[in-house]
Amino acid sequence: MDSLQSLVALFSIHLLVLLSYLHFTSSNKTATTFSLKLIHRDSPESPIYPGPMTFRERVERYRKISDSRVSHWKQINMHNRTEQPNIMRPRVTTDDGYLYLVELEMGDPLKTVYVVMDTGSGITWIQCLPCQECSPQKFEIYDPRNSKTFKKIPCNSPICYSFKCIDQQCMYSLHYLGGDSTEGYAASETIHIKDEQGLYTHIADVFFGCSIKTHIASADNSSLETGIMGLDTNPLSFISQLGSFVLRRFSYCLVNPTNSSTPLFSYLKFGDDIGFIGGAVQKTPFTKHPDFPNGYFVNLLDISVDNKRLNFPPDTFTFKPDTGEGGFLIDSGTVLTYIQDTAYSKLEEEIVRYFSPYKDLVRNQDCSPPSKLCYDAPMGFPLFPTITYHFQGANLTIAPENSFEVDYEEKSFILSIAPLPRLSILGAYQQHNIRSIFDIDSNVFAFVPDDCSKDE
Ligand SMILES: *[C@@H]1O[C@H](CO)[C@@H](O)[C@H](O)[C@H]1NC(C)=O
Ligand SMILES: *[C@@H]1O[C@H](CO)[C@@H](O)[C@H](O)[C@H]1NC(C)=O
Ligand SMILES: *[C@@H]1O[C@H](CO)[C@@H](O)[C@H](O)[C@H]1NC(C)=O
Ligand SMILES: *[C@@H]1O[C@H](CO)[C@@H](O)[C@H](O)[C@H]1NC(C)=O
Ligand SMILES: CC(=O)N[C@H]1CO[C@H](CO)[C@@H](O)[C@@H]1O
C-alpha cells in the first residue's frame, strides 16, 4: 500500500496541472452542474435488460451478485497479501458485478457508452477497438479511430507520471483483486452532457483508460458492461477530474429494482444540480482507511433495531492498525450490506429478539446465501423493524423494506445484511430511496430520504 499512497501524493501534486488540462465549452448553461442518467441494469431502459423477472428471480440474482462480489474480501488478509493488485476491489465482473449503469455520450461523432457507476474505484475505462483481447460485450465497442476528439495522452503529460511509457505510448494497467484486469492507452475524449432542454455541455479532454486487453473471468455475450466510471477520490477519478467545476460534489438516489412498478432510472448528479438544501439533510465526515485511501469510509458508532440501541463499544467499527480490522465503507457497487462478523452476531440476535413474540413466524435455516437470517411468514406480515446506523453526528434510518426482502408469493423474508470478516460495507439495497451526497471538498457524506422514482 505504501507505493499506492505515494502514488496518490504524486497525483495530488499534479492535480492543478491536470485540471487546467480540461476545458468546458457551453454558452447556454453553466458548466458547474449536470446530471447523467443512471439506469439499473435490470431496467427495461437498460441495454442489458434481461427481460421480466419475478420478485424471487430478482432477489436471487441480487444475492448471487452480492455474494460473489464480496467473496474476495473473505479470502484476503489485508496485512498478509500475496496478490499485489493496484486496486483493492472485488473483481470486475459482468453478471457477478455491478448494478447501476451510467449513460455517457462521448466523442465526435457522438457515441453512447454505458459504464458502471462505482464509488469504490477511481479510474474510468471502457473497451476500445482494435482490441488485442476484448472481453465479449453486447453492444458496439468504442472505436476511437472514428472520433475527431479522441487523443492519446502523451508520455510527457503529468497524467502519465503514474502510468508506463511503452513504445512512446502512455499505457495504463489496472489489476483488480480476484484477477480481472484492464490494460490499454491512457486517452482523453470529449464528454457531452445533455440537459432537459436538449442543450449540451461539452467537456473536452476527460482522461479515461481505453482498454485493449480486458480480462474478465466471468464475461459472456449476454450481460455486458463496457467499463467503469470511477468515482472515488483518486485524483484521476471522474469526479476529481471535473473537480472545482462541479464543486467536487456528486449525488445519486438509487431506485429499488425489486419494485417493478417504479420507473427504473434516476440521475447521477454533479455540482449544483444536486438541488435541494433541505433541513432534513444529515451529515457525517469521511474518515480514512489506510488500505483504501480513496474510499468513502465513515465513522459508524452504533446500530439500533426498532430504535433500540445495541450499545456497541465505541471503537467497534473503527479501523484498528494492529489487526487491520474495522472501517465502514459507503459503496454503490455491492448489493447487500455487510457487517463485520464480530458485530454481526449481536445485530442478528437483536433482530431475532424483535421477531420472537410473533409466533406465526418460523425461522428458516435454509437462507439464500450470504444471508444468515430468514423466516417463513404469513401473508402480509407487516411488523418489520427499522434499522438505524448511528454515524458520527448523523443517524441513517433504513426503512423496513430496504432491510428485509419480502417475497409475498413464497411467504418468506430475508435480511439484506450479511456477515463479513474485517470490514463493513453499506450496500446499494439499503440505500434505496435515500439521496446520497458525496461532498469531497467539505469532506462529508450527506443523506436524506427521497423518492428516487421521482428523481429529475
Ligand atoms: C502470510 O501468508 C503466508 C502464505 O499464505 C503464510 O505462510 C504465512 O504464515 C502468513 N503470515 C502471517 C503472519 O499470517
Ligand atoms: C459470443 O459471441 C461470439 C461472436 O459473436 C461467438 O463466436 C461466441 O460463440 C459467443 N459465445 C457464447 C457463449 O455465446
Ligand atoms: C413500489 O413503488 C411504489 C411507488 O413508489 C410504492 O407506492 C409501493 O409501495 C412500492 N411497493 C413496494 C412493495 O415496495
Ligand atoms: C441520533 O439518535 C440518537 C438516539 O438514538 C440521538 O440521541 C441523537 O441525538 C441522534 N443524532 C442526530 C444527529 O440526530
Ligand atoms: C453554444 C450554443 O448552443 N449557443 C446557443 C445559445 O442560445 C442561443 C439562443 O437560444 C443560440 O443562438 C446559440 O446558438
Automatic annotation (TrEMBL):
Signal sequence extent: 1-27
Any one Gene Ontology BP term: proteolysis
Pfam families tied to this protein: TAXi_C, TAXi_N
Gene Ontology MF term list: aspartic-type endopeptidase activity
Listed PANTHER family: ASPARTIC PROTEINASE NEPENTHESIN-1-LIKE (PTHR47967:SF123), OS07G0603500 PROTEIN-RELATED (PTHR47967)
CDD domains with a match to the protein in the record: pepsin_A_like_plant (cd05476)
Family of the protein in this entry: Belongs to the peptidase A1 family.
Organism superkingdom: Eukaryota
Protein name in the entry: Peptidase A1 domain-containing protein
CC terms in the record's Gene Ontology section: extracellular region
Domain Peptidase A1 span(s) in chain numbering: 100-448
Stored InterPro entries: Pepsin-like_plant, PEPTIDASE_A1, Peptidase_aspartic_dom_sf, Plant_Aspart_Prot_A1, TAXi_C, TAXi_N
Gene3D superfamilies linked to this entry: Acid Proteases
Keywords of the record: Aspartyl protease, Glycoprotein, Hydrolase, Protease, Signal
Keyword Protease in annotation: yes
